[in-house]
Amino acid sequence: MLNLSSEDNNKRKKRLKSATGVAYPTGYVFFRGAITLMAKIFTKPILYYDERIPQAGGYRYKPKYYFRNSTSKIGDCQAFIIAANHGLIWDISFIGMFRRGLVWVCKPHFCVNPILAQINQRMGAVPVFRPSLDSNMDKNSPERIKALQMASYEPTEVIPVVVSALKRGVPAIMFPEGSRAANSNVEGAKNGAFRASFMSGCPILPIGLVGCSREDRVKRTAIMRRRVIVGVVGELIRPESYMHLATKKDRENAMMHDWIQAINELRLEGAIKLKDL
């Protein structure tokens, strides 16, 4: 990872002013529509147990007019953190299953282009620089690494942004694995989503996705040969259930352990449902 000068760092922060994690309602409607359209053309996403989603189907912002950078509460529905396994790019299409504006933590590549950055950031994108991946000299040149850094938050900066949005009633989607995984093993998950849960008091909503990992059985529809992706929504994992543990690290690790177990069970159920379709 390169050390940015103070001048570059100020430019980076100025560029990220619109990456508050709070989407414009009109912008998110457009984003959701585009994602849903792509999903319908290339995939057939099926979501089970959507009644487990807090205020499922609700798309409400209150009050009607608000300042995105203020601390006023804009959501009248319970906020939560969607934490799903991350296989292929098609699992992102499940964002379109949720009708509420979302914080979506993403890789910096979505925001390197200044025009795309302004659009995506105003639709809830919070880009984060991943040192282990984005600063890899074998894959990226020093110029590319700097461009990625200039377009994103540092890992220590992104959690407060997400927590701020959650406290204002905006749900977030985070992939604990941090990047698309080559297999269905989620044991390498990071604790960012669980730290945000404890800091905000918002629960984790586990979703097991099947059909979007390289190891998953591929099933296609008879018409248009669309790839079938199954998502199974689990029960909420609430941070208050772990407050009896002594340290913050113990609480985060216990919640992450329960999330991994939940994802494995949901994926197993999803694989059975996919086979029976």
Please describe what this structure looks like.
It is a single chain. With about 280 residues, the protein is of the alpha/beta class. The chain has one domain: Glycerol-3-phosphate (1)-acyltransferase (3-Layer(aba) Sandwich). It has 8 helices and 7 strands. The N and C termini lie far apart (about 45 Å). The model is unreliable at about 55-65 (pLDDT under 50).
What string, H for helix and E for strand, traces the elements in order?
HHEEEHEHHHEHEEH
Estimate nothing, just give the exact number of structural domains: 1
- The total count of strands amounts to 7
SS-based class: alpha/beta
Strand adjacency order, main sheet: 1-7-6-2-5-3-4
Give me the oligomer status. single chain
Any idea what the CATH superfamily is called? Glycerol-3-phosphate (1)-acyltransferase
Highest CATH level, the class: Alpha Beta
What's the topology here?
Blueprint: H1 6-15, H2 25-42, E1 43-48, E2 81-84, E3 103-106, H3 114-121, E4 125-127, H4 131-134, H5 142-150, H6 155-167, E5 172-174, H7 192-200, E6 204-210, E7 227-233, H8 248-276
Parallel strand pairs: 1-7, 2-5, 2-6, 3-4, 3-5
Antiparallel strand pairs: 6-7
Helix pairs in contact: 6-7
